[in-house]
Amino acid sequence: MKKTLAIVFLLFLFAVQFMDSYGIQRFPKPEFESGYVQPETLLPNPRAEMLAILDIAVLIISLSVVSWLVIKKRNRNGVFWMSVFALAYFGFYREGCVCSIGSIQNVTLALFDNSYLISISAIIFFVAPLVYTAFFGRTFCAAVCPFGAIQDLVAWSPQKIGSRLNAVLGVIPYIYLGLAVLYAATGTDFIICRYDPFVGIWRFNASFGMFVFGGILLIVGIFIARPYCRFLCPYGVLLNWVSRFSRKHITITPAECIQCRLCENSCPYDAIDMPVTTKNPEDKGTMARKLIFITFLIPILMLLGGWIGSKLHEPLAGVNVKVRLAKQILNPGTPKNQPETFEIEAFKSAGKQQSQAFAEASAVLHKFYIGSWILGGFIGLVFGGLIAGRLMTKHRTDYTPNKGTCLSCVRCVDYCPVKLPK
Asked: What residues does 358 pair with on adjacent strands?
């Protein structure tokens, strides 16, 4: 019932937003035939500044309320309605910007380009969820992120996909994060924003391909809960790391586990670690051999990954404007009667020399070469960690949420018959 009410409410917001967008398209700015050019506004827009302050305030308050609902109240209904609010405000009203996921690129570019001025709101949206995660686990994912909220609403019949497939698909966000940092650090592109599956829908300006992509994710999300959060979100990688060291974290039972097994299949995200009670524990010799194997394997995988990445630096750099321009100058590849590309026309009108274009492209390629080495080594480290996690089993006696992958949705709590004393 509550999901139906939430969907009706969001459809109403969707209709209002659509009518507003339709009105803007129906009555565009007048075009003057006299050649008059409307001057740009020199002073900052006060409303934009106030909205940024409001966004920050709503973010902090939402994180505080959700963390309280998760850790103290253990209240699934409260978390659900907070996620509806987050989707309405950060999604439909603020149209997904500024978002914590995309802020990865702003922070990266600011670190590598001194001329880039990053906004305070972008910094806070990047840092605040990480700080709260360090104290309370991934409460941002639970009910503050609109990306997770929209997927949570359609998770009607989630099915388990198996631990092996879950682990393999879980590597994709690491690759996505590495590519996003590489392209942002080199000033090439903000690929997280470019290939965002939901923001274009909220803004009614999504390309057909991205509209289909977002729709597919929502359809898949009916059966595989939160596919973007689990298998694509690059910000989720950072939250995963930080949450493992969180000071407090949601627990399935408020007291000692009674091994009733009622919570065993309660998590739609496969984030519950089952008890491991090995009857014949491994001897010290076997454990030592595994440690030695992992110690040698991880550096080898990092070097191999870095080498493979370095071989791919030219294809990866091919989308950079400066590299693409240099290639077009070297190999025009166009018939005489075909007009020149926009990049070539802009280059000629600027009066630059070809040597300057080649020098700029060479500098970008060098950055990609170094960055691709680092990216490949990072992916090798991820695979090494995945293998190490499979080899090294941890003894557990209770059903416990995995502090890294648990999204703090509080679903599992309702399955536990052990209740807090009144």
From this structure: none
